[in-house]
Amino acid sequence: MAQKVICTFCGSVCDDVEFDVEEFKAKKFCKLGRSKFSKKERIKAPMVDGKEVSYEEATQKAAEILVNAKKPLLYGWASTVNEAIRLGVILTEKVRGVYDQCASVCHAPGTLAVIEEGLPGASLGAIKNRADLVIFWGSNPMEAHPRHPLRYSMSAKGLLISGRKDRKVVVVDVRKTKTAKKADVFVQIKPGYDYPIISALRALIKGEDIEVDEVGGVSKEQLKELAEMMKSAKYGVIFYGLGVTQSRGRDRNIENAVKLIQLLNRYTRFVIWPMRGHYNVVGSGEVPAWEVGYQYAIDFSRGYPRFSPAEFSANEVLQRKDCDAALVIAADPVAHFPKASVKHLKKIPVIQIDPFPNMTTLVADVVIPSAVYGLEAEGTAYRMDGIPLRVKKVIDTEYWSDEKILEELLKKVVELRGE
Amino acid sequence: MHHMLHIKNGIVIDTKNGIKAEKMDIFVKEGKIVEESEIDKSQCKVIDASNKLVVAGGVDMHAHIAGSKINTGRTMRPEEMRMVRQIANKFRASVGRVLLTSPAIGYEYAKMGYTTSFEAAQPPIGALHTHEELDAIPMVDKAALPVFGNWHFVFKYVAENDIEKLKTFIAWAIERTKGFGVKVVNPGGVEAWMYGGNCRSLDDEVPNFGVTPREIITSLIKATEELNLCHSVHLHCNNLGNPGNFETTIETMKLANGFSNDKRQVLHVTHVQFNAYAGSSWRDVGSGAAEIAKVVNGMDNVTIDMGAAIFGHATAMTGDAPFQFTLHKLLGARWSNKDSEVEGGAGIVPIMYLPKNPVHALQWAIGLELGLLVESDKVVLTTDFPNGGPFTEYPYVMAMLMSKKMREKELERVSPYVQKAANLPSIDAEKTLDEVMHMTRALSARVLGLENKGHLGVGADADISIYDFNPNEIDTSNDYEIINKAFRNALYTIKGGVIIVKEGQLVDEVWGTTYWVDATNKVDTEAIEEDLDKYFELYYSVEKEHYGVEEAWIKNPTRLVMG
Description:
Chain A has 419 residues and is an alpha/beta fold. Chain A has 18 helices and 22 strands. Chain A has helices at residues 31-36, 55-68, 82-94, 108-117, 124-130, 141-144, 148-151, 178-181, 194-205, 220-232, 242-245, 251-264, 283-292, 309-312, 314-319, 333-336, 339-347, 402-416, and strands at 2-5, 17-20, 25-27, 47-48, 51-52, 72-76, 98-101, 120-122, 133-137, 168-173, 185-188, 214-215, 218-219, 235-240, 269-274, 298-299, 306-307, 325-329, 350-354, 366-369, 376-382, 388-393. Chain A has a nine-stranded mixed beta sheet. In chain A, strands 11-10-9-14-15 form a five-stranded parallel beta sheet. In chain A, strands 1-2-3 form a three-stranded antiparallel beta sheet, with no helix packed on it. In chain A, α3 (82-94) links the parallel β6 and β7. Chain A is globular and about 65 Å long. Chain B folds into two domains: 5-56 and 454-506, Urease, subunit C, domain 1 (Roll), CATH 2.30.40.10; 58-427, TIM Barrel (Alpha-Beta Barrel), CATH 3.20.20. Chain B starts with a strand and ends with a strand.
C-alpha cells in the first residue's frame, strides 16, 4: 500500500507524494523525484583503494586520511540531512579543514546579497495564499522544480487566490523556456543584462524616466509595463534562479533585485526568494551558520571559523592546491567542477560518502556507501524556503546513514588525535 | 560528572526562600539541592565559598537564541562573527560579537552564571528548526515560546468567540511545536502587514477577520488561564517602536483586569523599553516609563521585562514584521522579512545604539528607568537579546540599577537630550543586590512557572552560581566596578550539580534539557480536527501529518504535563 513520504530530490521537498513499499513504486512524484525513488544502481559496499571492506575498516581509513592531512576539504552536503551536516561541521572544526557546500557553485551569490541588503521573503505557503504576481527571473521551474508551479506558485490555490486565473505570471529569461511558455508575459533579455534591467525598473517604479529606448534587449515600453505591473500587484514575488546568480553581475544582480523589492514595499507588498536546487542545500548553509557563524567557504585552519568565499570556496581551495585531502559527501565535484579543480582532486586522497556511484567515485580512495534519506533513513531537511521537514525512513537497509557514518568517523578522529 | 557537592560557608541570597545574604551551606546530590542529611560527606566534593555570594543560576526568560530569525541574522551579518571568543580545544570554537553561534550562546551564559534561557519567539511552522538550534546550545536549560497572535486559527476562534476551540487549538499547537507557552507578537498587526499595513491601536481591525488586537489579547489570556498553563500570555504589544506608544502599552496592560492566578501574573508584557515612548514624533519623543511603572505597580497580575538597550551593536529581530520594515526605512539598513504561511511573519534589521544619538540615549535611559521604577517583584532584567543588545551585558545593567553614581558617570557621556526627555537623571532609587538577584532569578522563574528554578531550596535544580565578592561587605552604590566585573565571570557555575565554570573559565560541558508543555489532556482535539484539516488542505504548503515536532527528535526533552 502506498504511504505518504517526503521527496528528497529538489528544493521543493514535496511532502504530498506517495510511495508503495511492496511494489517499490513512487506515486504523484514528478519525473525528477521519481528517478530518485526508484531502483537505481548503488555503490555495493565500502571500498578502500577499490577493494571491498567493512564499514569499520572504511571509516578507520577515512579517519586516518583526515587526521594525517594538514588541511582537508570537506565538501558537498546539499543532499544529506541536517543531523549529518552538523556532525560534518564539527568534524571539519576538529580536523581544522575547510567546510564548503554546493551553494558555492550555485546560489552563494544570493547569500552575498543577503549580507549586502538582506532577504525580504516569504514562505512558499504565504506566496501560494497571497501572490497575485509571480515573476520567475532566470529560473525555470517547469524543468528544474516541476511541481513548484502547481504546489506553491503558478497555479497553486490559497487564501486570496483561487488559482491560475487570479494570478499574473511573468518570466524573465534569455530564452523561451518551458516555464516561459506558460507565462502571461515573457520578457526576453540579452544574456548578462539582468543588472541594468533591474536598475531601469527601479527608476521607472520611482517615477523617473530612463533616457534610452531599450535596456538589455527590452524596450522601454515593455519595461514600463512590467514596472506598472509590479507596482500595482497586491502581493508580488520574484523567484530567481541560476540565470541571475551565475551570469554577469552575480551577487550584484541579486543585491540590485533586493533593492528593487525594498522599493516596491513602499508601494505594495513584494518578496523575493531563490529557487534552491538540492533538497537540503538550505540546511547545508543553515547548520554551519548556527554552529560556526557562516554558511559556506569556511576555513578552520586557525582553530576558529573564517569565512572568505574568494579564498575558501572548494574551487578556490582546489585550484590553489590548498588542501591535501578531501571528503566529498552527497555531491559530485568531479562531474561538475572545472578541470583545474578536478586535477588537484585526483592528486590527493579522496573520501566519498554517497548512496550512488558517480564520477567522483572513480577518483575516490575510500568509498563509503550510504542510505538514501527519505527512503531508507530519516532526518531533517529544509525546503527551499527554510521550512523544516523530517524526511522519512520507509525501507530497511544494510547501508549506514550519513549520520551514522559521520558519527563513527568523528569518534575515530577523536581517538586518533588522542583527545 | 555528577558529584555530591557541599558548598560551604557561602553568603546566600535566595529571595524566594527569604534568605538575605546569610552565611550557610548548600548541599547537592544527583543534580538537585538536598538536605545536609542526604549527603555522604566522605564522598562529597567541597567548594569553599567563604565570603562569596551564592545564588541560584540566572534565568533568562526572554532572548532570541535559536531558530530562523537569529540564524538569518548570522547569515546577514558575518561581520558579527569576526570576534573570536575561543579557539577549538576541548570545547567548541566560539565566535560572535552580539550575535553568537549556538555553542557560544551556551558558553557565554555559563560564564555569567546563567543556567536557563528561553527562546522568546518560535515561528510555529519553523518549530523543528528552533529545536535543532536549542539542541546545539550547550550548558543551559531551554524552551521556546511559539507565536500565536497572528495565526489564522486564533483569528477564527476569536471572531467566533469560541474559547473552548481556542483552548483546544492552543493545546494542540503547543504540543505540535513542543513549545512552552503562548507568545503574542503585535496581534493582528502582522496580518495587516501582509497588505502593507499594521494594527497600531487596540481597536484597529485585522483585515478580513473582523477582530481587533483587544479581542485577540483578551481571548488568549482567557484561554491560557482556563488551560492553567504554567506561563501566562507573553505579549509583545502593538505599536512597538513608535513615539507615543506608552499609552497603547498601558491600555494593553489593563486588559489583564478581571483575570487572576494565585501562582503568577496573567499577562507578561515583554521588552517594555520599546513600548514606553511618550511624545508624538521622533522630534519630541520622551520617556513614558514612569506612567507605565505606575500602572504595573498598581496591578497585581501583570509583570514586565526591561528590554534594556545597551550602547553598541545589536540586531533587531522580531515577529513584528511591519515594525522591522519601519526600522529599515528609518535606518536605511539591510532588511530581511519572512511572511509565514498563515501564522505571521518576522523581520531582521541591524542596528547600533550610539550614546550621542538622542533617540538611542533615550532608549537606553528608558530601559533603566523601567528597571528602577517598577517594583522588583514585577520587572525582569532583559535586553531582549539581541534587540536591545547582548545578554553578556546583563552585569552592566545590574550594576547600573544598583548605583546612582555609576549612572551619573554614564549620563555624562550620553546625549544631553536625555536630561530633558527622560526621568533617569532625577531618579535616586538604587536597587539592592537582593532585588537584582530576584529580578534575574526567582522572579523570572516564577514568571515562567518553573518551580525548581531561581532558588536554592531543597528540591530545586542544582543550578548555582557563585560570585567573587561578599554581599555583606560590598557597597553596591560605590563598588559598581566590582559588581560589573564579578557578574561577567562567575567564580563557579554549577549546572544540574556539575561544575561547568570555574574562575570564569569553562571546565566542563553539559547539555541541558528542553522543556515543553503538554496541555492536551485538558482538551479534546477532535473538536478542531475538521478546521485543522481544512486549513492545512487550503492554506498550508505542508501536510498536516508532517507538521510539528516529535519528542523523540529532541535531544533531551522534559515534558511538563499541565495539571
